[in-house]
Amino acid sequence: MARRMEEEPVSRPSYGTEGAWARELLDQLRPAGRDLNRLVAWLARSAGASVRLQEARGGLLAEAGERLALDATVVADVAAGRVSAAALEDGTRHVRLVGIRHPGPDPAASAVLAVARREPFDRHTTEILGHTAGVLELLLRERELAHADHRLRQATADLRLAILQLLMVEDTVSARRVAAGLWPGLLESDTARVYVIEGSTGERDRLAEDCGAATRGGALVVRCPAVDEHVIVLGPAAEVEERLRSLVAVRPGTYLGGSPRQRLALTATAYGQAVTALAVARFSPERAAVYAERTRPARLMDPAALHAWSAALLRPLDTLPYHVRAELLATTRLGLEFTAVSTAKVLGVSRNTVRARMDRVAALLGADFSALAVRAVAHIALNTEAAHGPYDPEGNAPAAPVTFADLLGGDALRGWAQGLLGRLDGDGRDLRGTLRAWLAADANAGPAAEARGVHAQTVREHVRAAEPVLERRLLSGGTDLYEVVLAHLVTGELPVPALGPANPDQADAVVHR
Fold first, then answer.
1. What is the pLDDT of residue 426?
2. Do 487 and 416 contact (CB within 8 A), yes or no?
3. pLDDT at position 293, please?
4. Count of CB atoms within 10 A of residue 329's CB?
5. 95 - beta bridge partners?
6. pLDDT for position 68
């Protein structure tokens, strides 16, 4: 193909040129018409040509008409800015190549426009091509800015999630360092509340933006990595809740669950409380609820004895470096509340990592986490330390060892357990017996059905029927289920599990199950 290369083969006269084509071209700049494919198709019709618009590196952006085979060397020269444009012909086609420039001093092109037609390029066609190149430059610049804005938004969202994940594993120092650059003062307070707002999956991005606007930069707003309908908000300021309630009130189909004020190191605990409150909010006229501190069984135990027992149980972990210990315990607390998949998404790790961390904790504690009662007892120990801190930072063993069975003997705790389970006695279906069999089978309907001589579906229906009576969620697991397990341990309807390493003096000693 013979070639002729020119520095400025395409003129770009003023946009005052009259004619129907000029008005049509201007229509391409209307908000509803800003589309590269549409503009390239219009150019092909107006110039009676085949058109290709490609990125400087060769990626196709849009084309119309016959597929063009272009001279790679010439295209590279135009893309690199060595020439601003080129005109070629081979006896059957006339081709114009135009570089669509980046704004600024860089001579390289952001894209290359190729137009090929059988007739030579007359003044009219050249004028159309010149104007179109200018419009393409505007549209590509807008596209580039939109992509840059999207990348910035995504990077900001990733930073917010990273901060939340650091707080989830109690690394408040790193979380503050990350937050300080973009959101100064956000985590200056030692305490905060966590809120979970539920909406539709399709509207979540808009909901997250509205949460950010409503809280005016005074809260950490994160799209939940585990539940597509959820937005997590961590708000140190007291007015955050009021603003979120106002937001939910004017958005039908949205619900708000909140935690009480917690230390930043207890963000994982606060998150679990907010999720629990969200379940209540779905049945509230205001569609909002805050976690209610009802009488928790741990509060009915002797505080000093409970703290000493939890410290003794967790002592095998004290040999670990602080950050490793905190990471293991935070992961295990979340893993006992939620599934391994959900925990992994919240923490930003794989589910195998979650399981590996929990398995390591289980080995150190001499615990079999496949047993429901063991998980319930471990849950109490982990949350006791989370709420009250280490029993003895110096690492000295408690003077009087306390067993978990010792903690269950108080009159107040027994009264609570009997009162809770006694609510089921009035049902003629023997919900209490079915629930006891289901718990003894580690919440598996099949073995419980065999023990009761009924169908597995009947077991599930009885458990669902027990939930509103006990005012606790059972099938979804977590704190509510563990409290019901504890009530059965107190009344003796389930045996108290034994926890502890075979050799308490060696944290990594073999565990006897």
1. 84
2. yes
3. 65
4. 22
5. 88, 116
6. 83
Measured from the Cβ of residue 201, the count of other Cβ atoms closer than 10 Å reads 10
Q: pLDDT at position 513, please? A: 28
Please give the structure tokens belonging to residue 196.
């979970």
Amino acid, res. 327: E
Q: Cα–Cα distance between 275 and 342 in angstroms, integer? A: 13
Count of CB atoms situated within 10 Å of the CB of 45: 14
Query: What's the CA gap between 290 and 194, in Å, rounded?
Result: 10
pLDDT in tens, 183-225: 888 898 899 999 999 999 999 999 999 999 999 888 999 999 9
CA 498 distance to own-chain centroid? 36
3-state helix vs strand vs coil in the chain, percent to 5: 50, 10, 35
d(CA 79, CA 81): 5
Burial of 55 (0-12, 13-18, 19+ CB in 10 A): middle
Inter-residue contact 499 to 378 (CB < 8 Å): yes
Q: How far apart are the C-alpha atoms of 445 and 448, rounded to whole Å?
A: 5
Could you identify the residue written with the tokens 């289901």? 438
Provide CB contacts within 8 A for 164, sequence distance 6+: 220, 222, 232, 234, 267
Q: Residue 18 in 3-state DSSP?
A: coil
| β-strands 230-235, 220-223 pairing | antiparallel
In terms of C-beta distances under 8 Å and separation of at least 24 residues, what long-range contacts does 435-441 make, across chains too? 435/462, 435/463, 435/466, 435/474, 435/484, 436/488, 436/493, 436/494, 438/462, 438/463, 439/372, 439/373, 439/484, 439/485, 439/488, 439/494, 440/494
CA dist., res. 232 & res. 223, Å (int): 6
Asked whether the whole model's pTM tops 0.85, one would answer no
| 107 strand-pairing partners | none
Q: Cα–Cα distances in Å, from 282 out to 75, 135, 290, 476?
A: 60, 51, 12, 16
**CA atoms of 441 and 455, how far apart (whole Å):** 15
What averages of pLDDT result for each successive group of 10 residues across the chain (513 residues)?
Answer: 45 48 66 75 86 85 85 83 82 85 72 88 86 84 81 86 91 90 86 95 92 90 92 91 94 93 90 88 88 78 90 91 90 91 91 95 93 94 80 50 86 92 89 95 94 93 92 86 95 88 40 29
In angstroms and rounded to an integer, the radius of gyration of the C-alpha atoms of the chain is: 33
